[in-house]
Specification:
This protein has 338 residues and is an alpha/beta fold. It has a single domain, classed as Alpha/Beta hydrolase fold, catalytic domain (Rossmann fold, 3-Layer(aba) Sandwich), CATH 3.40.50.1820. The chain contains 14 helices and eight strands. An eight-stranded mixed β-sheet has the order 1-2-4-3-5-6-7-8, sandwiched between helices.
């Protein structure tokens, strides 16, 4: 009887293993078709800038920006979250523009920025964490911004922190909106990430996350009924371009090798920090944002009632009021670099 039981268990495990190996290979690798070019899909205020990046012919970024005003005004760089794009800042962009120079951009491969595919680069992977930091500073350089206040939502907050740790002299302050700091994702060895099965699973996830239902947009609101049809259209603008799904998969696949370690270095951040959390955030617990605020040496923390993971979209007036109050006292908080 025991032998039969062991044979049955071994058969079941073997069947599961076969499913794990075979089922991902059934995922269709044909890239998504595109109905339009990025410039044709762009809004009136959109611009495209090309920055050099090693191993590529250059990368085209879709941006919204204002020129530097006269006087000693602040400069802001707005960093969207995972699967989002530049349009997440529409409600707050005029507010920041009234305070100084602003640049918001689609991080690759999101929105209308380039959809680089494996084979489009011969050097470092442009979807790595280190590459994202280089691209941020390259865009600042191209816009003539020597020092900026970084405004990051979710994974954009992680990027803002990584940038501040890399070149602290170029970051005046940080505004982190429901930042992704303590949440962990699985990390895997390169040999496993590069298997055909895992590449196809990444493609499946990319199509799910960026498809018609936009599950992360839904989950980012305390009340999804507040998402307007226009907002849904802009959140899905990437899907009008060819190859978006394969490009998203390339990013997702590589991210499995990039550990999120910024939480161990929060005490090294000396710049003034404002952390804003939506009380109904279902993606980053409010407790995580409060914990991060305590870890900084120069931070303020605000919780916005009845708001989710993207209060700058869902509760823009409350978000603007908190930021405006904080900015008024920023000169007294600022860190001066030699």
């Amino acid at each position: 009887m025991q032998r039969i039981f062991l044979i049955v268990i071994a058969t079941i495990l073997f069947g599961i293993l076969l499913l794990i190996i075979i089922v991902p290979l059934l995922i269709d690798l044909k890239p998504a078709d595109g109905e339009i070019t990025a410039p044709a899909a762009a809004e009136v205020d959109s611009q495209f800038v090309r920055i050099p990046f090693p191993g590529t012919a250059g990368i085209n970024f879709h941006i919204h920006s204002t020129s530097a005003p006269s006087g000693d005004a602040n400069a802001f760089v707005l960093l969207h979250g995972f699967t989002f794009n530049v349009f997440t800042w529409d409600a707050l962009f005029p507010f920041f523009a009234a305070q100084g120079q602003v640049i918001a951009y689609d991080q690759i491969p999101y929105g209308l920025s380039d959809k680089l595919l494996p084979g489009d680069w011969t050097d470092a992977n442009p979807y790595s964490k280190a590459a994202a930091i280089k691209q941020l500073f390259a865009l600042m350089d191209q816009s003539g911004i020597e020092q900026a206040i970084l405004v990051g939502n979710s994974a954009g907050g992680t990027l803002a922190l990584e940038a501040a740790l890399t070149h602290p002299e170029r970051i005046k302050a940080l505004i982190l909106i429901d930042p992704w700091i303590y949440a962990q994702r699985p990390t895997l060895p390169q040999f496993l990430v590069e298997t055909p099965q895992l590449r196809r699973i990444s493609l499946f996830l990319a199509r799910h996350l960026g498809g018609e239902k936009l599950p992360l947009l839904e989950r980012s609101y305390a009340d999804p009924e507040r998402i307007t049809p226009e907002r849904r259209t802009l959140a899905a603008i990437h899907s009008r371009l060819a190859n978006w799904d394969v490009a998203w998969a390339a990013l997702l696949n590589h991210s499995l090798m990039d550990k999120v370690t910024v939480s161990a270095h929060l005490g090294e951040i000396k710049q003034p920090v404002l952390i804003i959390a939506g009380s109904e955030d279902r993606l980053v617990p409010v407790e995580d944002s409060a914990r991060a605020a305590r870890a900084f040496s120069n931070a303020e923390f605000a919780v916005l009632p009845d708001c989710g993971h993207v209060p700058h979209e869902e509760c823009p007036d409350l978000t603007k009021a908190v930021i405006a109050h904080w900015l008024r006292a920023l000169p007294q908080r600022a860190v001066h670099h030699n």
